Amino acid sequence: MPVRQGVIAIVPAKDEAARIEATVQAVLSLPEVLSVIVVDDGSGDGTHQLAADAGAYVLRHPRTLGKATAMDSGVVYAEQLGYGRSPVLFVDADLEDSAHEITPLIRPILAEEADMTIATLPAQKTSGGGTGRVVRLARDGIQEATGRRFEQPLSGQRCLNREALDEALPFATGWGVEVGMTIDVLRAGLRVQEVPVALHHRVTGTDLGAQLHRANQFKDVWIALRQRRAKR
């Protein structure tokens, strides 16, 4: 059973062989991180083996089930490993060495100054070519539901104490997970902070695959918002 104070990091990953090893090593190097769990969501490129070689616990989905399901699987696995009351840090798999900078996201949780923190990232070096429709939908929807306006409402880098995590479960499906999480935690009266963190990740491009990704993201965010409107 873990005894020292810290967080358990959960990294959902799909075909991230080029980046997962550096990400895991960077996160594991932080004294605030107890362990790293990588949930391989049906990868076909050896992501799971590279994550294990880097020192992570690895849970594999036999097929792709989506980001939210991978995050949920990671939470369950953390409990099985004995981290059932530790705060949870969600980390995207493509941060690579920049994950060394994620400590400011963790500290307010361990200091009990916030119940959930959300990373705001600097402008990324490569333009993704997106229109921002999904971000606007998420930002406006969260504001309508809670009265709070967030700079980066879709940020996947988040740290939650167990009270906030309990309120966020069950997660909204697919790419709506962050929006649903934010609304559910705020509606429970808990403290949410955005924290500037110098992280860098792969930017979605402009090809057909990227456009399909944005369309799926828009759909999932819209569904998460609609479901939470119905709960009022």
From TrEMBL:
It is an enzyme of class 2 (transferase). Residues 10-136 form the Glycosyltransferase 2-like domain. Its EC number is 2.4.1.266. InterPro entries: Glyco_trans_2-like, Glycosyltransferase_2, Nucleotide-diphossugar_trans. Its cofactor is Mg(2+); Mn(2+). Belongs to the glycosyltransferase 2 family. This is Glucosyl-3-phosphoglycerate synthase.
